[in-house]
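Researcher: We're teaching a course module on how sequence relates to structure. For the next exercise, students receive a sequence and then see the predicted structure as C-alpha cells, so they can try to spot secondary structure elements on their own. Here is the exercise chain.
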Amino acid sequence: MKAAVQYAPFDVRLEEVPVPVIKPGEVLVKIKAAGICGSDVHFFEGSHPYKMYPRIHGHELAGEIDQVGEGVSKVLPGDRVVIEPLLACGTCFPCRKGKYNCCVSLEVIGAHMDGGFSDYLAVPANKVHLIPEGMPVDLAATAEPYTIGNHSTSGAKVSAGDTVLILGAGAIGLTAIDFAKIAGARVLVAEMSEFRKEMVLKFGADFVIDPSKEDLLARVMEITNNEGAGIVIEATGVRSVMENTENLVAAGGTIVIAGLTNEKVAFTGINFTKREMNILGTRNSAGEFPAVIDAIASGKTHADLLITKKFTFSQIVEALEYTTKNMANEGKVIIEF
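Model: And here is the predicted structure for the students to work with:
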C-alpha cells in the first residue's frame, strides 16, 4: 500500500509499505478521506513536542471496513466509518472516571503510532463509528475536530441564553461556534485574520471582534452590559490571550482552555474566590463521536463550509506544504483517497 512516511522535518515521502495485518478485535480500514490538523503541520515542520520519526501521521480519518478480525461483530466489511484516534489503558484514574481522553498512558493514532495518511489502517474495532448512508466521507473526516469543539462547549455546560466568547477562529474555534449555537447561546468571537473573520460570520456567530482594531475588553463589556461573557473559550494557545480570559469572563463564569502552550500561564489568585472564576482544561473528547456524527449528517453544523480545500493522496506532500504556509487562510484541508 501507499503511505506518507515522514523521516525528518519537512521530509515526507510517499512510499510502498506492507498492508497492516489485523489482530483479533481489530479491523482494517481502507482510508477514504483524511483531514490535515494543526498538529500534523507541527509534526511536518518538526515543532511538535511528541514528534518521532519515521512516522505516518494523520488522525482525522474516515473510510470503509475492509477486513474484520476474530471476535469482531459490531461492523462488517463495506461499512463506512469514522476512526476515533485515542487509545487508552482503561484502568487508570481518569479512565475509571470516564475521562479516557486524559489517560495517563494515552496513545494517539498518527502521533504515538502510525496513522491514516496511508491506504489502510488497522485499529481496534471499538474505535470505529458508523456513518449514515449518504453522508459524504469528506464531511465524515471533520468529525474528529468537531468532537473537540463539542467537548469544549459541553464541558462548560453551554445552554440557551448563555453568552459565549471564543478567542481564536481556527478549526477548533469554528467547531465550537457550531455547538454553542446548537445549544442556543449568543456567540462572540475574537479573531484578527480577515479570512477567519469571514468564516466566523458564515458559521453564524453574533459578533466578531478584531482585537487588532478594537479594544477587546471594552467591546465585550459593551455587548454584555459590563458583565463579561459567562463562558470564555480560549482557542489560540497564546499565553497572553489565556491570561486575559480572567478579565473577559463574568463573575461566576467559566473559562475553557482549549489552546496549547508549554509556557506558564498566570491568573490573579483573588479572582478564584472574589469572582468564583472557574477554569476548565479540555483535551480531545470522550464518548462524543456518535452525537457529533449525527449533528454533521443532519446538517446542524457547517462542516461543508469548514472544508475549504482538497488534495488527492498522491499530492499529500504538496498538501502539507500548502497547509503549513496557509493555516490562517484555510479552514480544513482534506486529503481524498
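Model: If you want an answer key for the exercise: The CA atoms of residues 146 and 175 lie 5 Å apart. The two ends are 12 Å apart (CA to CA).
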